[in-house]
């Protein structure tokens, strides 16, 4: 029987994934178990229920879903091939949520946590790890003895057989268990051969195994051919250099499915644009990989051809980009609303006619009236509802109501607006007298004490910046340009080496550090009983009662038991961002300084925060590599607002009082970008073209 050709199309029906809790006391959870066609019952959190996973070869999918919906769990199940229907020969590469300079940091599990780099466990550099995975060079050199290599291959096959037997049920499960028994027998025989003394090996066995060794050695030599090693190393270096890292991860060049979970979290805009263009260029390769991408950066995910929406334990698909999807959803809701309203009017008219016919028929003993009423009632029951079938065509009663048990069309159900994420920023307290909130006057900064013989170079030089009430100030720059140093000067964590920093005497400042999540995780590990409610309650020092504290946490997405019962150490990255924001906002600050606040947040929360920042009365200083977020929050560029313009004149008056400016920090100086984010983006696009060339 000829082998079945390998297909790069995945189409899995009836997918169920539940994350089971192995140790409730410790709160740990193993990898999710995935099953097809059968229901998975037991304790745990259900991520998918009777869902469909369909991936077209070469397409680029953006996986969308709120924090905690199970995106990372689904990606891990795909990567580890725990889902029946993913062939074992499928080559899958995954980049999980990782920070390049934290490869050895032992973070707790959970969405948004950094995971330990695979290279940390082996002691190899990331470049060596990329080459190692692409060539299996280390294993080859260590396994030149035929028996040992054969035994290792049998063990790998046994692992796959065991996993297959655990996942399958019914007839396929029985067949898989038989294959497992045969595999266990082969491994046992191989173990005996490994333990056999050399003098006990017979001449026939020696001749057979020698030929096997020659064949395997020839195969292995092809794998470690110097030319191939050179090509792999060149590709690895190009990828790592382009990302701007000395140590970073990128997929094997021969992967079938490439999974990237928040790859832009710690890249600067040059790295983001480079990665965006590189992933798009893969489409021109002979067999482009299927890409599954999770990112909160709406501009970055514009490279995707399709959307996968994880919601209500189901996966829905949309061919197109996110703005088109949101527009289509709004159009469909409007269409269904109008259809339902029209049919409700028609239904009311028919029901009135039926009632009148029944009343007249009974009063006059008129059978025709009664039959007419019955006929109209049947039409009312069977012919009202959706005017289109499940396939999208016009509904036909004799075709679309198959089976005797069907009696009516589906009711028109207008999708209810999901409880949206709304962030309300409290209004600042009265300053009592005018003046700049923060001002830098010819400020310069260098690390270390000044030395006459060998002075340290300045990181920042002659920076003049004023932040007034209502201002929106964006700061752009590549990693290492000095953005965080500038922020530390603004929040008085660092004093300038030269120049002055002045603040308003009544200033209340809210500072979100790019390391806020890591700092909260450290506090959570130090005090396992610490919850969001207890932490914030201690900090407000009686100025807010428990109800007000709960209300603030709830308004930012930490309601009820999530704030009072779940330890801080167990909160996801996105939930920790919300907690940190609550620690800033309860004070009613006049100025918010936000350094990479969108990292770890899902795109819906990013959207809500951008909207909240647009017209807040206080000042905002924003450092971010998220172009879409910066355009909306600082430059007030918002696509498809959909308002009727009734408040346009009032907003124009308020807008005239507001200063919006985007700066670029380069070569120690702060430069105004007249065309804002677009100007910076165009400059980097030119650099990326040179890199890719």
From TrEMBL:
Stretches of the chain forming a coiled coil according to its record: 325-383
UniProtKB keywords: ATP-binding, Coiled coil, Nucleotide-binding, Repeat
Pfam families: ABC_tran, ABC_tran_Xtn
Species assigned in the record: Parascedosporium putredinis
Gene3D superfamilies assigned to the protein according to its UniProt record, in alphabetical order: P-loop containing nucleotide triphosphate hydrolases
CDD domains found in the cross-reference section: ABCF_EF-3
InterPro entries in the record: AAA+_ATPase, ABC_tran_Xtn, ABC_transporter-like_ATP-bd, ABC_transporter-like_CS, ABCF, P-loop_NTPase
Domain ABC transporter: 32-338, 438-667
Disordered: region residues: 24-43, 101-123
Any GO molecular function: ATP hydrolysis activity
Domain of life: Eukaryota
Name used for this protein in its record: ABC transporter domain-containing protein
Low complexity bias (residue ranges): 24-33
PANTHER family: ATP-BINDING TRANSPORT PROTEIN-RELATED, ATPASE, PUTATIVE (AFU_ORTHOLOGUE AFUA_1G16440)-RELATED
